[in-house]
């Protein structure tokens, strides 16, 4: 099976690609650094051609409210047009626990917009809602601290997120699901 990992060079994407390559699949790590850009469309059609599955682990270069929203909306539109044309059978994406319960956070609104595009794409999908990765512990503490108290959901190690994305790929062949790891 040909599997395209959009954002396959990123923190979670590179771990997912490494996991998938232990199997007998053709795995494409797609990102601007490998010549595939979901914003400009460069290399996208060629990358998804012949693919049965796309795992979207891309992220906006800017985490600010408006750029992040624009990234996920533009990327999603281009990605689903290419996936539909290529006959992709399943789309997997990594999202965030409780993103829809925190509309005051701009980046979470962008992730909800990404989820809506996925749900309306017409392509069978799995959305995995994860807590943040341990690798970001320092940054999470910085933005979540209120005096001496830091309040956040239990983070998970990035390598476990990579395994989850592969696991969903193996099990998630039809329908739609949102699951928390
Ligand atoms: N990190 C967390 O704690 C966490 C938790 C839950 C969910 N998530 C979600 O998981 C996803 C990945 O997060 P991450 O931390 O692994 O991100 P990351 O390390 O910042 O990696 C981002 C990836 O996106 C790629 N990318 C950027 N612009 C692109 C474009 N125009 N077209 C195609 N690919 C592009 C990058 O490619 P280049 O290397 O070529 O620039 C890179 O491979 C995000 O959607 C995030 O919301 C993350």
Explain this structure.
With 181 residues, this protein is an alpha/beta fold. The chain has a single domain, classed as NAD(P)-binding Rossmann-like Domain (Rossmann fold). It has six helices and eight strands, in the order βαβαβαβαβαββαβ. The strands form two sheets. It has a six-stranded parallel beta sheet, with helices on both faces. β6 and β7 form a beta hairpin. The chain is globular and about 55 Å long. The relative contact order is 0.16. The site of NADP nicotinamide-adenine-dinucleotide phosphate has 26 residues, from α1 and β4.
* Computed structural class: alpha/beta
> Based on CA inertia axes, which overall geometry fits?
globular
The small-molecule ligands in this entry are: NADP nicotinamide-adenine-dinucleotide phosphate
Work out the helicity level.
40-55%
Q: What profile does the largest beta sheet have?
A: 6 strands, parallel
CATH class: Alpha Beta
The tally of helices reads: 6
CATH fold type? Rossmann fold
The whole-angstrom Rg is 16 Å
Major β-sheet strand ordering: 2-1-3-4-5-8
- As an assembly, this protein is single chain
- One letter per element, helices H and strands E, the order comes to EHEHEHEHEHEEHE
Poorly predicted runs are: 172-176
Number of domains: 1
Q: What CATH architecture label applies?
A: 3-Layer(aba) Sandwich
